[in-house]
Amino acid sequence: MFFKKIPFLILFLLVVTDCVSQIQNQNKTFLYEGRIEKLQNDNVILIGTASSVSFNFVGNECSIKLQSVDSYEHHNYVALVLDGKYLGKIKIEKGAIQSFPVKITSNKKEHRLEIYKNTEAHTGGVLFAGTTAKLTSISSKKKKKIEFIGDSITCAAASDSVDCDKGEYMDHHNGYYAYGPTLSRAIDVDYLTSSVSGIGMYRNWNDENKDEAIMPDVYQNLYLTKDNSKPKYDFAFQPDIISIALGTNDFSGGDGKKERLPFNVEKYVSNYISFIKMLYEHNPKAQIVITNSPMVNGEKAIVFEDCLNKVKNAFANDKAHKSILIFKFKPMKPNGCLGHPDVADQKVMADEYGPFLKKLLNEK
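Given the sequence above, the corresponding structure tokens read:
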């Protein structure tokens, strides 16, 4: 997945007051989660897959103000969850701030609205510019935390498999139902998703790391790009577990048109080790789990598993951190667009991986 970068003129100036991965307002009017950029007046830019803003309100009227922003002239999507019920996703066209009414059907005295970015970081941000709702206070209980680092599979790109031949790449994203957020809701943990379609550990799906950034290049940028004008990621989330699922694109054969060299075991393993060392610097207490891919099969899967064992063994004598664990997804024939897992496939992955992570958290 690659987007044409077109300068986007933001029609207003907002002063950045805080840039964090998970924030709570001091007055607890809003809860923010995921890769986000906090702005003045409770405005926030939702950046990463399934990043979110939530609030409680009373009454039977509510509308929200949203805008597709940042450096790409692309529309975006968010998913809405009202009083625990998934309402579906709404499209935010490029351009000015838009107002979206939310239909209230419940007779509950107090309601909770959750707004999740359904598209990924590279489609540009979604500005939450306020609500007309009569707000009440909101709080959250302390939970264990998991970060999911990955590629288009982790983004749930191409997972909305209706009319795959229509629309654009982002039209088929459904980050709310990605395996990470899905299993996190099931085992009741907080999560953060750091994922980019097409990205790899040492090369991308159709690139030999000559033209495009790989995950080690962009991870420490809040927006998951190499744009130095953007804030750095602050590592405030501090997950109990960091799940890394990168390799599908490194093993990719590309489009058959651009030069594609044979898979380089040494580069992949070396980059992986360096990446984990960086993560340990900022998250010294985290349990790291590295995974295979349900999309890599046959001889490639054997090489993939061998690479993961090499990465794990490189830290065998590291007494300062928990031993690295490997999780293996079962092979899958994906049913989504462009050969990706669809929403049902994402649920299968969540059901496989969730019990493993829950057991691991219970042991901590």
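The CA atoms of residues 78 and 117 lie 4 Å apart. Try to locate this feature in the token string yourself.
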